UniProtKB/TrEMBL annotation:
This is Helix-turn-helix protein. GO terms for molecular function: DNA binding. Coiled coil: none annotated. It comes from the Bacteria. Signal peptide: none annotated. It comes from Maribacter caenipelagi. Residues 4-58 form the HTH cro/C1-type domain.
């Protein structure tokens, strides 16, 4: 599970903008945001870089 949706909301960034920056379709990014699909580690690090956050901030911990 990831926190991409929460981080986008915190920063006021739209999924369309992120999709454009990643070079991926809106549907792909929406799948990540809705946790229907999970990005590869490479993509997760790219998302973190684009959003200027630590990759760990994009992961949900389940304890």
């Amino acid at each position: 599970m990831n926190r991409i949706k929460e981080v986008l909301e915190e920063k006021g960034i739209k999924q369309v903008w992120l999709a454009d920056k990643l070079g991926k379709s809106f549907n792909t990014v929406n799948g990540y945001v809705q946790n229907r699909n999970q990005p590869s580690l490479e993509v997760l690090y790219e998302v973190a870089s684009i959003l200027n956050v630590n990759p760990k901030e994009l992961l949900k911990t389940t304890i």
